[in-house]
Amino acid sequence: METIAAISGYYVRGGEVDRLSVGRSRLEFLRTQDVLRRLLPARPARVLDVGGAGVHARWLAADGYRVRLVDPMPLHVQHAAAIGGVDAVLGEARRLDEPDSAYQATLLLGPLYHLPERRDRVTALREAARVTAPGGFVAAATISRYAGLYDTLVRDRYLEPDVRRITDATVMTGVHDPFDQDLFTLAYFHHPDEIVDEFTDAGLTGAARYALEGGAWLFADRDGWLEGDDRTVALLDALRSVEQEPSLFGITSHLLTVAVVK
C-alpha cells in the first residue's frame, strides 16, 4: 500500500483517463490494441484489466469481451464503472480478490512499472497467472529503461541539472523517483531482458516480447502520423513488421510481454 500512496498524488489529477487519446501517447494505445486484438481469444471471453483507468476496458467491452477492471484509484474505478459492459472494483495487483482460473486473459498494462521492488512485480505476475485459466494468457506492459533519457532529450529538459541527475540515475538503476510530476511519478523502468526472468519466476514460461512503439514514439505526434489516415495505417504496419526484433527493444518506450498460462 505504501507504493500506492506514493503515486496517488499523480493519478488523482485524472490525466490517465485521457492520456492515451492525445499526442504521442496515442501510438502506445494503438499498438497495445493492435497486439492484443491479435492475441485475444474468441469473444465473449472474460478479460481482467488490472491497473487500468478504463481506456482499454472500453474497446475490449465494445469488441464483445466480458471485462472486469481492478484499480487502486477510486477515480479510475468510477470512470471505468460508467462504461457499458465493464465491471469495475477497487483492488491491487499484488492481492487480487478474484477466483482461480476465472479469466481467459489478464492484462497488467500499468501495475508493473509502479512496483519498484522486483519481488512485488513477481507477486503481481504470479497473481495474474493464478486468476487466468490454463490456455489463457497474461500480458504485462513495461516502460523501457531508456525511455526517460530519450523523453527528456526530446522535450529539452535534459540540460536541467536536477532532471539530468534523476534521468541518469534511472538509466543506471531502473528506479525513477522524480521531483516534478511533469517527469511522471515513482516508477520502475525495465531493462528489456529482465522482464522475461520475472515472468519465469512467476511461473509464466515462454514469454514473448513486443516492442510497442519502437523508435516511432520520438516523432509519431509530428507530421501527421497519428491522424487516423493512410499514414497511420502505414506506421502501424511498419511497427508490426519489427515488433519482435530484439535489437529494437531498447529504443521502444513500452514493451508488452505475453505468456500463455500452462
From TrEMBL:
Keyword Calcium: no
GO annotation terms (biological process): methylation
A GO MF label: methyltransferase activity
Domain of life: Bacteria
Signal peptide positions (record): none
Pfam families: Methyltransf_25
SUPFAM superfamilies: S-adenosyl-L-methionine-dependent methyltransferases (SSF53335)
Domain Methyltransferase: from-to ranges: 47-136
Gene3D superfamilies found in the cross-reference section: Vaccinia Virus protein VP39
CDD domains in the cross-refs: AdoMet_MTases
Keywords: Methyltransferase, Transferase
Protein name stated in the entry: Methyltransferase
Organism: Paractinoplanes toevensis
Taxonomic lineage from the root: Bacteria, Bacillati, Actinomycetota, Actinomycetes, Micromonosporales
